[in-house]
Amino acid sequence: MEMVKIAILPLLEYNERMKVWIKYLIGIGLGLASYFILPMNNANVSAVVAYLSELFVHMIRYIVVPLLFFTGAVSVNKLRSSKLILKATLWTFAIIIISSLILTLIGLASILIVRLPRLPITVDSSDAVFSLQIPELIRSILPLSAFETLSEGNFLLVSFVFAFLIGWVMSGDQTAMKSAFNLFDSLSKLFYGIATFFTEFFSVGMIAVVCNWTVTYRTVIATGIFNNILIMFAIDFVIVAGIIYPALLYWVCHDTHPYRVLYASITSLLSAFFSGDTNMVLPLNIRHGKESLGIRRRTSGFSFPIFSIFARGGSALVVTVSFIVIWRSYSSLAISLNDVIWISLSAFGLSFALCGLPSGSAFVLLAILCTKYSKGLDTSYLLLQPVAPIICSFAALFDALTAMFGTYIVAVKTKTIEHHAVSHYI
């Protein structure tokens, strides 16, 4: 037994010191290797990998609502008590709107400047009806029982509104509400601890997630049909992550080291891309926001959820590019200025209504635009159906980046941040 302890303890200590993003990269590497080692052509093996991938994603989603609810209530309480609630709200929504507009324009500019090859026209038809059901989403915010808000795992605004109300009321009479606040504060720390464990363990889950994701990716790449549009998405991301967002951070916050936010975002970006799920990334964002960037809970518990709910500029970008590629595949005529304005404004405006779709929202938005535009393009979105999961992965990638940079800006502007040395980032 002593020999076992001597052998294992150094490994455990090394694991604790290892950066989280390195653990995730190792998981990604093992996932890619598993794809080539395992007989993925076997239906049973493929089904098991897909099941494990879904199970690990559910593990992270399992903790999202409790973490958001109790931390959100505490954050609202602290922001209101310190008279920062209005400032934090204005900065959060201003960044969401501006970032969504920037991403839409980047997608529009890239596809207008670079004319991608046409996609092969298919004769597929679909009876599916895509709708954002906005009235139903609004109605769901106030269910018949407030406790029903804690059972909604997709539309996070439902539980966040309840948390906001509790946090607001608790800050009214702090003496009378002290016991309630202490309870929420303790539960917030409790679920943060659980989220920390889950996010650490998810590095193992990345093996199954990446292996399952590679099945789709290899099939798409093998055809060669969609490679150009995927390369355009990748280049757009490099421009946004490497130039535009750091420059914006330098200009708004006068931050001389804007790339440290990008460094702190690595784990969230990897998880968002391979899962394609914006809600799943929330615990990772909150953890890295606190332990790497030093964002205080009063801001991270407030801004990160709002970004996860409303900041879908990534979907607007990929949909703008995808729609124009589809349009050009069906017609050799130049796109009129009116069409360009309609496409960009529709993608930009409807992106804010994707809050009830944590995954697959980009393809849903593309289908809605094709249906609304009509003119023979009603089912043209089916051209991109084979590559839909990867399109949604890029959309989630942009959105995770926006959440990290955006919340950092809010924290700086509200002075709710304690900067850490890069060497201390997790």
Detailed description of the structure:
- The chain has 426 residues and is mostly helical.
- It has helices at residues 2-17, 20-37, 43-81, 85-113, 134-140, 157-170, 178-223, 227-253, 259-264, 266-275, 282-291, 297-310, 313-330, 337-351, 361-373, 388-413.
Spell out the blueprint of helices and strands:
Blueprint: H1 2-17, H2 20-37, H3 43-81, H4 85-113, H5 134-140, H6 157-170, H7 178-223, H8 227-253, H9 259-264, H10 266-275, H11 282-291, H12 297-310, H13 313-330, H14 337-351, H15 361-373, H16 388-413
Helix pairs in contact: 2-7, 2-10, 3-6, 3-7, 3-12, 4-8, 4-12, 4-13, 4-14, 4-16, 8-16, 10-16, 11-12, 12-16, 13-14, 13-15, 13-16, 14-15
- Percentage of residues in DSSP E strands: under 5%
Number of helices: 16
Detail the poorly predicted runs.
3-14
What is the share of helical residues? over 70%
Q: Please give the radius of gyration in angstroms.
A: 22 Å
Instruction: Give the end-to-end Cα distance, rounded to a whole number of Å.
Output: 32 Å
Q: State the major sheet.
A: none
User: Could you give the order of the helices and strands?
Assistant: HHHHHHHHHHHHHHHH
Give me the secondary-structure category. Answer: mainly alpha
The total of beta strands comes to: 0
Q: Would you tell me the overall average pLDDT?
A: 89
Shape: globular
Could you list some keywords that capture this structure?
single chain; 426 residues; mainly alpha; 16 helices; 72% helix
Short description:
The protein is mainly α and 426 residues long.
